[in-house]
């Protein structure tokens, strides 16, 4: 699709909805994919070589956007009552481990698969464990499930145990990422 037409549609949608709704970038990817399938014979060797040169830049941008979405979903899960107390430790110890797990999973995938990775948009509330799931957008199957469990340890108090499950073992094994201490008082519910 012509770039100017895409820009006009984005401006139109933003104007009509007063900026509340922005067009999803997935729409453009699907339109570009349909257009490229219709014109595969028109692709020159120059454009293929140019794509290969920019491939690593696109990889880094895609991975960074996945990390940003993962962090956003984590803080959404924590809510305004929990986040201020655990954010420093989460940023320094837990989130780097999340990034490692996501990177290692992506490293096992080809480019066409991982550019369609989805992150669930609603973490569970109350005392449920789910932070977010990383899934294959093409098949809809979960790849990794990131969880946080509230644990009460006798004579110590409450801890948040961060862990994940993978499709490789059918989500059975808890892969520990670390614990963050809350206090001896009962913690608030998630999303609060």
Q: What topology does this entry show?
A:
Elements: H1 3-16, H2 25-38, H3 45-107, H4 111-114, E1 117-119, E2 130-136, E3 142-153, E4 157-166, E5 175-183
Antiparallel strand pairs: 1-2, 2-3, 3-4, 4-5
Commentary on this structure:
This protein is of the alpha+beta class. It has a domain of 126 residues. It has 4 helices and 5 strands. It has a 5-stranded antiparallel beta sheet with strand order 1-2-3-4-5, covered by helices on one side. Strand 4 and strand 5 form a beta hairpin. The longest helix is centred in the middle third of the chain and has 63 residues. The radius of gyration is 20 Å and the shape is globular.
Largest sheet: 5 strands, antiparallel
Q: How many DSSP helices?
A: 4
Sheet/helix structural class: alpha+beta
What integer value in Å does the Rg equal?
Answer: 20 Å
Biggest sheet: strands side by side, in what order? 1-2-3-4-5
What is the overall pLDDT average?
79
Helix content: 40-55%
* Poorly predicted runs: 35-54
- Give the tally of β-strands: 5
End-to-end separation: 43 Å
Net shape: globular
Work out the strand percent: 15-25%
What is the H/E string?
Answer: HHHHEEEEE
